[in-house]
Amino acid sequence: MNTRKTLLSAAIVSCLAFSAHAQQAPASTPAATDLDTIQVTGIRGSMEKSLDTKREANARLEVVTAEDVGKLPAHNVADTLQRVPGVNISSSSADEGGFDEADRVSLRGTSPSLTQTLINGHSVGSADWFVLSQGNNVGRSVSYSLLPSELVSSVEVNKSSQAKLQDGGTTGTVNIITRTPLQFAKQFTAEASIGAVRSDQADSTDPQYSALFNYKNDANTFGVLVQGFYQERELRREAQEIPGGFFALKATDPVVAGIPDPANPGQFLQAPRPDLEGLSIPGLLGSTLFEQTRKRKGGMVTVQWKPIDTLTLGLSGFTSELEANNYNRNFMMFGSGFGRTQAPDPGYTVVDGVITNATYTGVPGTNYGVYDMIYREATAKSSYVTFDADWQINDNLNAKFQAGTTKGTGETPRQFIAEVTVGQGGGASYASHGAGSPVDWNIGGDISEAGVSSFGTWGNQLVKAEDKEDWASLDFNQYFSNGGTLSSIDFGLRFADHEREALSPEGASPGDIWSALRGSATGQYPGNFASSVGGTFPRNIWYYTPDALQNAIVNNSTWLAGNDGPDGRHNYGAEWKVKEKNFAGYVQANFTGDWWSGNIGLRYVNIKQDIDTYLAVSDPARADVRSLFGMWQRQAFENKHDRVLPSANIKFDLDDDLVLRVAASQTQTLPDYSALGASSWGSDLNKTGGGGNPDLKPTLSSNLDANLEWYFMPRGLLSLGAYHMRLKDYIAFDVVQRQLFSELTNQLETYDISTPINADGQVTGVEVAYEQPIGEYFGVNANYTYANGKTNHTWADGTNNLLGTSKNTYNVGAYFENERFGARVSYTRRSSFLISLSGTNPYYQDDFGTLSASLSYKATDWLSISLDGLNLNNPTYKYYQSALIPTSFYSNGRQYYLNFRFKY
To answer: Per the confidence metrics, is the pTM higher than 0.85?
Structure first.
């Protein structure tokens, strides 16, 4: 620990020493730049502005600029950012698996929770549509699916820290910048986009609309900007899933210990098989169909007013709502059921402790299949309101004030679930072919509706997440016009009051649902189901329609609301709250010399956390609350953290076209909300789950960064950089056993619970970027990032991987553009990385690459047409537990977006 501080201090002191002794620059007034007021259009114009902004910055900054109003280089914000060196994307935030749309962004080989996302420099309340992300797996990352690209002017990726930047991003900060009314060149601007998206696997074409109107007066002192959007899309994901992966047979499992004969003590109905102890078999092998309709709507209104030349006032409001009802069907071989009691037939294969090939002869009365049909209503909302004031007090002093409130809500109002067992007495078999291929499997017996041997349901429960923040900030810039080395000082204060809460106050008690559901309307899996996934497993599968499932459950259940007592459906075990008060103050000195510039600063952060959660108990004397879900004891915790975070950045203009940057800093990120607050939860099928740890400390990173940039021609860049992050109190996961209430047995059962813990880690990496125009109309770009991350925590598979670290990431692209036509093609590839625990086992996403392309045609000055294609290579997203054990394979198909954009 002392060594880390010494190294960081030495780096920062070196920057100070250089600043103090460098040659002083001649007196000058900072040159005005009109980069922010130029109307940038086209691929070439956006790339040129991005490079200009990057070059002029005094810190490590990457910029993506919109090609036109409402047109980023990719269809959504996250897909655009994946082309930036050091940026990785993922399509999910919890265990919902791989989708076709990027939803999370992370920097430099770390998890998304360590990357902070802001809009116009402030936080944004965010919550997810997926039920597990609403309560059990709640990070600090922002869902990019709520942020339409049509609203974005540019996106800045801050890779090195500055004292004036909001704290919270250990590895960096993404700042999404929207347009303002006085930024437009014309007095009146009106635009509209009418289009459609074609999802080939869902076999659906759906509408996409957006509109913009901007007015500003002739004096450029008052303006109003109004934007709106409505987007609809059908999604169908076809997959093989192995929930929880493979599990090891224990000495206590009947198949290992034997089944005693109660009539003959010392004798066995089934002989012990100690040779099976420790061998791993699949818990559940699933044939999975997920369908969803996503409807996103919202807009933004911004007003700017300059009552005097030196004062600009702004008021902005944003809202986005995503309706995401979904139906997931998972037809599974029930290995975690029969595999604990029945030995495989002779001839099974064992490789490195894994039974990779086995057959189980049918036993009368044994269920070999279990089938979950889960239809959920789901929504996610995000909104904010901000007030800004920018006051040029005098020639040398500027003040900026901002206050705002933001709220995000994710809600699953109802869940309609049927779990049935099939294939009774029919036996089962499977053959695994390693992590890269699906498992071949089958079950015998009757797997039709007529073969259902038992029915169960659970989860018809309201689940809601709320994320709220109120904040105010005051920032000053004092410019010195005496021509000295110290050119200006930034200083300011910020206060934020943040609250994240998971709620489940009401739900339905089931009645005789099965009598109403049996014989109701059914459908079939698609005829070409999972053809791109490969493998041999059940595909001709029936299911109850969503309407049949919903009607049977609603009409035969009793919804219990407003009942917090023993006979109510208040699920206290799913509830928790984290409240944080964050006060920060900073001072940053900015320096300028003849051929160098930089800054050095300190940011003080003081945080108070109040955590409320529940602990399941079996002793009524210890219980504070009880319901039909069991008994709980209220628990309250308080954490306080205060720290001074130093930062230093220096930029050397070695030549007219050559720039060297060096940076050092300390940054921190608080643990994920659910990691702090979540009560323990578990799955009844495999007796695994997760929980929180209120004693977690913030992750503190000590960072060093260097980058050499050669701007060898207009729109041309070749850069080479290196970075190192030493992570103290990084968040990893351990596994413990806890007693939880089971909805199936209505009693406390023992579950294996993954629990977050603090550990240390580090990431060292290299970034290379290259951009070059070829002639007047063509151009190419490429970048590569190497990240080597490790932690001192050892996972169950014996590795020391960091969450989210892909060792290799690269992007290659090319473009063409003239006055009428534009075209762009891009390919991105990311190597495998650790996601988290699946059950009690670490699991990884395998290497994957995505191909996208776009075409544009400017038909007239007022009409342009664009066609964007995503996932053109139709990737299959693969997840695995080890080289021998896969966990899932997802296919989403391709998407095509056709848009007609009208301008006035």
So the answer is: yes
